[in-house]
Design a protein that fits this description.
CATH superfamily: Umud Fragment, subunit A
Structural class: mainly beta
Strand order of the largest sheet: 3-2-1-4
CATH topology: Umud Fragment, subunit A
Number of helices: 2
CATH class: Mainly Beta
CATH architecture: Ribbon
Order of helices and strands: EEEHEEHEEE
């Protein structure tokens, strides 16, 4: 089961530590309810739930649903783009780095 309550992720009822999540709107949205609150929903067999790290701007499984594993073509290996929102700068030193 996947659930998001007030921007916090729960899998099978347990909170997920999510250090990569970024929110540029600290309030819980009421006009786009799936943005900050979603589910609980059971992830179907042979499917994944895809969630972007820039949560307030990501168009992901909260909006378009689960992804069939057969449609997953690879694994992220390299940082393509990195942005420091607070400093409003591109983090050039991270672009092209391997994802560990």
């Amino acid at each position: 089961m996947i659930e998001i309550r007030d921007k916090n992720i729960y899998i099978d009822g347990k909170t997920v530590d999510d250090p990569h999540a970024y929110f540029d709107d600290e309030t819980t949205a009421e006009r786009i309810p799936v943005k900050d609150n979603y589910g609980p929903k059971k992830v179907p067999a042979n499917h994944v739930f895809v969630l972007g790290d820039n949560r307030d701007k990501s168009y992901d499984s909260r909006f378009w649903g689960f992804v069939d594993v057969a449609d997953v073509k690879g694994k992220a290996a390299v940082i393509y783009w990195s942005w420091d929102a607070e400093a409003r700068l591109i983090r050039l030193e991270r672009i092209g780095k391997a994802i560990e």
